[in-house]
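Human: My hope is that you can spare some time for a protein that puzzles me. I am handing you a single protein, as its sequence and its fold in token form. Could you go through the record with me and say what the backbone is doing? Take your time, and here it is.
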Amino acid sequence: MLPMMTFGEEFVGPPEPPPEPDQLNRLDAPRDYVSGKFVDFVSSIDRFFGSDRNYQESNDSVLQLDIFRVLGYGGEKKFVQSTRANIRLPMAEQKLHLLIESDPDKNATVDPKQSLSPPLAQPSTPKSYAAALRIEKTEAERWHLSLDGGIKFHGLIEAPTPFVRSRASLAVPMELWNVKLSETVFWFNSIGAGETTQMDWERPISQPLMFRATSVATWLNNTQNFDLRQDMIFFHKLDERNAMMYQASAIGVGRPNTVVTEYVVLALYRYRLHREWMFLEMSPQLHFPRALAFHTSTMLSLRLEMLFDESK
């Protein structure tokens, strides 16, 4: 028997049953497959280039030894080495790591010019080394949380000083894009308290080509201003041994008005020199600093890197 209806009402039949679990699995499987392939591709790019994200978020042990030489604008006639290690300790369900690094208060989290691949300024000779313990947690391969507490050693004369860092990152897939948000809060005895906010927009163009737009803002309590950086990057993996990176960057400060202090255009060639752990980089760069009225200054960055992790 049909239900009674008044004039103007439309008959609405019984609600459709929810999709069966098998149907949901059929709909999710292609998306999960594409997302998984994308994540694997991005991870392989970051691992090949020895990026900061690979160092920060890999649950495997990672050791990076770098020898830099910068020629031209801002360069000095010397080689500079840097070291950092993220060692997974066999306890606490693989959530406890030992960190060893040089000049932890001058890395890319604090100074927008000091990224490892490639540096946009002459790296300084390490003046301190640090050891820290890290507790980290990963949720559903999207959230990554870590807390560091350590001691920085300045040599035999100065007393060691403590430092703390905390980092959280979130990956948000959006159709063909992947958005990565990260927030780092830190305190060092030498530079005080600060925080860094970073946003990455990533999209695969084809299997060997990927685009990434990175926005970084670092605030230091001692200086009361933001250091800003915007990168537009194309990664092109030529084969298993060769890769190229093309990058345009703008660097500035906010006090609170934003002022661009430098533009940079560069190419980077990275070659796997030996087996799976030794790499050679060459990066010709064009710098347009405000201090020189944005006139062109050339730079060439050279790096020999030894990168060890459990996947190599």
About this structure: The first strand starts at residue 62 and ends at 72.
